[in-house]
């Protein structure tokens, strides 16, 4: 099929969005390609369409497990086979998935997290796969100048020695000039090749409001604007408190953060998408992969760490191209807190070593334990046990990531899965010999297909209803069957994953790349400086400032942000001012008059404005008083 036929068949569109077709053609022609498309700009189609047009399998590297799972699910709904490998999967699950990608030609996409690239099991099987394209999502993560640097992304370039003729497409929504250059360098692009859609969003009004009472200002904004809204806050506690305040003020609101159970998160998310909840107060855990076109306002209650994050989050407003508002609430306290964050985000080496040692103790990881070992991880529980400050602990974990010792993945939901280990004859024999389990196994086989071939998602509640026992009784039976080596049972999870990506070492032997950490700190300071400049700015168009940050120069003032609106207002006042001066000129040319006589013609004017007008005209030498205190026009009449 042609690319247009693929687009129409699987997505139902007849035409591509701007730049999509050019990017797709570049990839199909075998060129390494960097695609810079803003949030909601249709990045996934840029690699999914060419992958479907080419023979073979597309390898997609992404750091976000929830997004990977979401894309695999969406592709499956369109009748396209896709698989994913990520932290938390069992070794056997990974083996089966990789083998399927070798022998099943129907599978077109394999999504995996970057740390999986270094595993021996992947490297061995990679040589047997027919890879048609390498897609690198969130490509800014490969650059130390990017706002979310991930050192394991540097391993992507190593794929090129196994796949020298396979093109790479790198995709991101936010990249500065340095990051654009670095992405191409780190991925060994054969030739520079960048497609960049303008970052300009003409339907968005960017506004900064200086306020000490953010609750009152948030309420005022929501009362003045109609439609759905998002409010981003830095802490989980604040999302709950602010949502409670808004509900007391009769605003339909709810809160969302990664600490909530999966089912509750999904319910809250769907209620907002369906406009059953008007306003979602959330941390930055909310929004990835969500495309609600009619979000009318995005408020940042707290100052983000960088303009990239602000642009990405505020960009969730107005995806239907209708006018929407992006409001940042700001005061001096935010500035002080932002500067304090620099210190908290870069703790000293001893603190980082303490955290690493505590992690090893927490998960009982002995010295020399193998790499790529993953665990469910609850940071709040970890901090409580070892009495760490959560902000400092999180910063230490991020630095341990940058030292390439661990990877901390976001919280994501994984349903329970089972796979029957025995073949059909062996299972039948077990059922005959163990009548107690016979009916349960029959129910399993009737309810779920493919249990002998792969790990199949199951629902213990459905099974408990069909076997007429409690959910806990169902789980207990599954555990007994696992203990008897009949099946493998992987229970549902909904937690962050922490993966040790290197062999476990002594905390004292951690070697810090001081130059890298120094550069990262310098980069972070610069990003804080940029967002403070944006927030404190009172002269330049806000849209223009954002565009210039992303190296897009020459744009005109947007005319609608708070700065432009103020300038427009001043311009109108100036026009009115000049008009009044012209009327005064006409009156005094007709007949010299005293200020009191003249003011009778302009009685609708505020007396202070009138006095200011006369004073200005006297200073400019356009008017002067005669001996009778009458005003005369002094300049030559044209």
The biggest sheet, with number of strands, parallel, antiparallel or mixed sense and barrel status, is: 7 strands, parallel
Looking at the structure, the CATH topology of the largest domain is Rossmann fold
Instruction: Please write the CATH class name of the largest domain.
Output: Alpha Beta
Please identify which CATH superfamily of the largest domain we are dealing with: P-loop containing nucleotide triphosphate hydrolases
Q: What value does the average pLDDT take? A: 91
| Class computed from helices, strands and strand pairing | alpha/beta
Count of domain modules: 5
Quick summary of this structure?
By secondary structure, this protein is of the alpha/beta class. It folds into five domains: 194 residues, 3-Layer(aba) Sandwich (Rossmann fold), CATH 3.40.50.300; 140 residues, 3-Layer(aba) Sandwich (Rossmann fold), CATH 3.40.50.300; 93 residues, Winged helix-like DNA-binding domain superfamily/Winged helix DNA-binding domain (Arc Repressor Mutant, subunit A), CATH 1.10.10.10; 74 residues; 70 residues, Arc Repressor Mutant, subunit A. It contains 25 helices and 21 strands.
